[in-house]
């Protein structure tokens, strides 16, 4: 079997780096980005702040106590989205196949390129081009598969690169902490630690069957990753990925309150589907079909988000621009597109934790009791949003069904 060559690239402390491009005085100083009041949450922090024990998702009040000298900045999702697109364009132009897994993270398949170029040279030149044209620091790992390359990127940081030669994957991973394995979160780490497992090498020396007995299917995956085994492919990135819903009415209507209520419910549910699938959208489209079958759509690019309070006003704003008050409406629809992976981090620029906690609480109830178990009052009369998918708690096929 031919050797694969998989590149993983990650923009270093991306939000912080973007802010330093705007204000060079921030370079070398501890930076906290997120909600700016004591009730806020840290979305990102500089390496200088991390030395004090600060990390993302930490309450801003605690971060201030740990690092009193830190400069606190309320994030600007628009700025970060724009810089992310700049990097994406450079990668798109320079490689045959790439996958954008989040706003600041990419995989590139360079397999077979060694027949024409040295893959390490190609990766190095791509990294230099990104840094030169965007001003952003970026690190990469290069190896035979996604897992080893991602871990290598983490070891290369900050602002560096690392290649793990074919056949040396286990030797590279062995001395590292089990926390370096992608998918090993805090709970799994504590469970491994309780078993006396701290280094990846210990897992490498264990029978796979033992890991499976303790952790089930996840145990097999952890064992494979620890041994440098990962057969997953680089999935070509497409900005056409989207989720959408629409409603055709039995009777054409001009009831604006009804129309807006349904649109609100649509946007609210799709936003929940984004969060459940750990996705962010950067493009909102509203569709209106009139009784004469003329169909009109309007879309807007927005900063990456999955937040109701950002998406719902944008949907209603687009509808107001589209709607012709003199015509009966036959169909309305909403689509969120240009999706990338990303959890709550991009939404942590809120001043208060209440909004984030509210989303998490509502999503947990919806996961357990169904999509429409919690909803805004304005959309409550939208008994069905899509005739073909009347909210049975099923996400669109694109998104994984993540349980809380």
CATH homologous superfamily of the largest domain, by name?
A: Reverse transcriptase/Diguanylate cyclase domain
Report strand order across the widest sheet: 5-6-1-7-8
* Straight-line distance between termini: 40 Å
Portion of residues within helices: 25-40%
Low-confidence stretches: 384-404
Provide the CATH architecture of the largest domain.
2-Layer Sandwich
Strand content: 15-25%
Q: Tell me, briefly, the overall form.
A: globular
Under the CATH scheme, which class of the largest domain? Alpha Beta
Number of helices: 14
Give the tally of structural domains.
3
Please provide the ordered H/E string of secondary-structure elements. EHEEHHEHEEHEHEHHHHHEHEEHEEH
Output the structural class: alpha+beta
Mean pLDDT: 85
